Amino acid sequence: MKKTETAKVISQEELASGIFSLWLENENTAADAKAGQFVNVYCAEKSRLLPRPISICEIDREKGRIRLVYRIKGEGTKEFSRLQPGDTVKILGPNGNGFPLEEAEGKLLYLVSGGIGIPPMLECAKEADSAGTVSVMGYRTADTFLTADFDRYAKCVISTDDGSLGYHGNAVQALEAAADTMMPEIIFACGPKVLLAAVKKFAEEAGIPCWVSMEERMACGIGACLACVCESVETDEHTHVKNKRVCKEGPVFAAGEIVL
Ligand SMILES: Cc1cc2nc3c(=O)[nH]c(=O)nc-3n(C[C@H](O)[C@H](O)[C@H](O)COP(=O)(O)OP(=O)(O)OC[C@H]3O[C@@H](n4cnc5c(N)ncnc54)[C@H](O)[C@@H]3O)c2cc1C
Ligand code: FES
To answer: Which of 49, 70, 202, 205 has CA atoms 20 to 30 A from the CA of 224?
Structure first.
């Protein structure tokens, strides 16, 4: 069983309004981490008992570091944004399954993500041994983040809801437009449920294999409480009902496995 680890804060910077990048050092976590997994981050303030699940954005195995990119949502993430280099934080992970990078080998891979679903795609872009990678990233406005990082590993297609940068529309509309000239052979997606549902529909209609990373509110974050279940097509072996634990069997599922 995994135990809680102490991670040292290496750096913290604000990438866009309310979006922070945090590099943490912990050798065990970095050594085991895979693209698409997440860590449970604990608050120092004891009234905030439950850990906050945050995806692993980047892994530096040589230096024993992981990068988290998160949006301030409530008190927990606000507390994280005050962490300074040299501080320590308790983490548990890596948790969940991660993206099946081996499925993308030699194929044209599309990473389709929106908002705070964008960060976990960076390590996928970095590690995929694909025939080419296109990262379609949906933002609300031109106040974007991580685009320069993605540029190093993938052809980037940016969309904004307000049309202030890139394609005017959402990430799924941008995916459809890009696919007109270069059809994906495999898709990995992460973002709000409405984005995942639309990507799943696109992939099903086009006959393209697709994996989606789900986000549900979590409590234990390690498979013990069933707070995080999503509806599945098949009956689950663990619960004997049609659901899957996002923190344990997920967060990444073959799109056909779950109901969106
Ligand atoms: C698998 C997974 C990966 C995630 N990766 C990222 C990421 O890379 N970057 C990022 O910014 N956010 C990510 N989130 C969302 C992040 O966990 C929440 O924004 C965060 O827990 C909010 O905590 P808070 O105390 O600031 O907010 P509050 O709303 O005050 O949180 C109250 C409680 O609800 C839980 N909670 C609230 N929103 C969520 C949520 N969306 N998902 C799960 N639990 C929630 C909190 O953990 C906490 O226990 C991820 C969520 C999941 C499930
Ligand atoms: S959060 Fe407890 S089982 Fe997933």
So the answer is: 70
Give the pTM. Answer: 0.96
Ligand 2 pocket: which residues have CB below 6 Å? 218-221, 223-228, 245, 247
Test site for ligand 2: of 95, 215, 217, 226, most ligand atoms within 8 A of the Cβ: 226
Dihedral Cα 182, 188, 192, 194, nearest 10 deg: 60
Q: Which residues contact 6 (CB under 8 A, 6 or more apart)?
A: 26, 88, 89, 90, 91
pLDDT digit string (tens) for 2-51? 789 999 999 999 999 999 999 999 999 999 999 999 999 999 998 888 99
CA distance linking residue 133 with residue 141, whole number of Å: 24
Query: Structural domains in the chain?
Result: 5-95 (2.40.30.10), 101-213 (3.40.50.80)
Per DSSP, helices labelled H in 15-100 are: 27-32, 75-81
Which ligand neighbours the alpha carbon of 21 most closely? 1
Q: Which residues have any ligand 1 atom within 6 Å of their CB? A: 38, 50, 52-55, 70-71, 73-77, 116, 119, 215-218, 251
Q: Which atom of ligand 1 is nearest to the CA of 78?
A: 26
